[in-house]
Amino acid sequence: MKDEMIERLAMSISKEKMIAREIGSLFNHLKNSDSAGERRMVSSQIAMLKNELRKTGNETIEILEKIMLFKPLNKDFQIVAAEPEDHMPLQRTRTQTSQQMPINNTAPMQGKGILKPDSLEKLTLSRMKKKEKKVLKTKERKPRKYVKLASRMFHEFSTKLINKGKFKDLSRDLIKANMEFVPAAYISVIFFTALLSFFVSIIIFLFFLFFNIVALPPFIVLAQESLSIRFLKVFWILFAIPAATFAFAYFYPSLEKKSLESKINQELPFAVVHMSSISSSMIEPSKIFNIIISTKEYPALEKEFIKIQNEINVYGYDLVTALRNRSFNSPSKKLSELFNGLATTITSGGDLPDFFEKRSQSLLFDHRLEKEKQAKASETFMDIYISAVIAAPMILMLVLMMMRISGLGISLSTGMISLIMVLGVSLINILFLAFLHLKQPEGI
């Protein structure tokens, strides 16, 4: 009867722990939710779990009241203590034997000795002292002087804009791109860089206001037009350069996030296969990430897994909460789905090896499809390159030469036509290579 009650008590306590973890996870999800409908749904779920936790706690108390957790000492066991002033060691005897077990009397407390731990207790204590949590962290970097100067000038203005709800997308991209900036500091850098580019644009504007660039030596000559006409031609430089600088700095975190997402998606199928083989040994789930980190084979995923370990060891979150936090802030949609699925599997008590095996098959299938798409895209790019870089410049050069010989339209010198062809082909090649570099995934 007592064994049955103890088993019921263990099941009740285990249920309480599971409900408490789920409540903590939902509270964290409530903080990160954006829509009011989602918050209402999460709040109602938390209220239901609280009622269930209260009901389970009452059942646990009833079970505890029915269990007697202590019993009187055996009759053949007695403790013999000497008088305090004699400082005799406390003895523990049994009637069956006459052997005495001396007790430590070097630190008496109110006339009673302290029992010495046996060898098994000593071994347990030594293991507990040696057990320490490992905190995995990346290298810490001090802020650069450029960032400090930008923050000193624009920090208050940037903070006001953030408090008004501006730059929300930029803040999310900074977190997902793993950039070492807080939103206020990066926005300050954007404004400071745009300000510097404005002064650069003034210098370029003044140069083109008085000078012109030609195809023949000395290449830089004085402008022949009047200042008013020249001003109308080049005044756009004052606005174009700062605007382009601001736009590039604003969208740069988004580009970094996409680049990181591409790297993670390239490593993820093979990492999940590795995780599937590790989980088949029935290891504790959080240890799987430690093993993957120690291999050093997945540099992009390693940073994400280190963050999970730090949320567990530093912030004290359980594994499910850490997974959901990283799912919300992950740059890769596929990795976010993996973390969410793993959290659900752990919460529901599912089969981890089976989960990793099915997810690895799905990711490998997607990987093969992506490779096929890239092969088809490469064929298309090759056709575009032949048309844009080889055929089009030759046709344009023939047209310009015919216009020069016939005197129709714009008549350009031979040197100018050659310069246009060289610069045009070079520019097209640079743009084409940059486009291929952006489209090409990591590791190819």
Number of strands: 7
How would you classify the helix and strand content by structural class? mainly alpha
Order of helices and strands: HHEEEEEHHHHEEHHHHHHHH
Helical percent range? over 70%
Biggest sheet architecture: 3 strands, antiparallel
Give the termini separation. 67 Å
Description:
This protein is mostly helical. Among the domains are: 2-66, Methane Monooxygenase Hydroxylase, Chain G, domain 1 (Up-down Bundle); 77-127, no CATH class; 145-259, no CATH class; 370-439. Helices cover 71% and strands 7% of the residues. The protein contains 14 helices and 7 strands. It has helices at residues 2-32, 36-66, 119-130, 145-163, 168-176, 183-210, 227-234, 237-279, 285-295, 299-313, 319-329, 333-348, 352-406, 414-439, and strands at 77-80, 91-94, 97-102, 104-109, 112-114, 211-213, 220-222. The strands form 3 sheets. A 3-stranded antiparallel beta sheet has the order 1-2-3, with no helix packed on it. Strands 4-5 form a two-stranded antiparallel sheet. A hairpin with a 2-residue loop joins strand 4 (104-109) and strand 5. Helix 8 crosses helix 9 (285-295). The protein starts with a helix and ends in a 5-residue tail after the last helix.
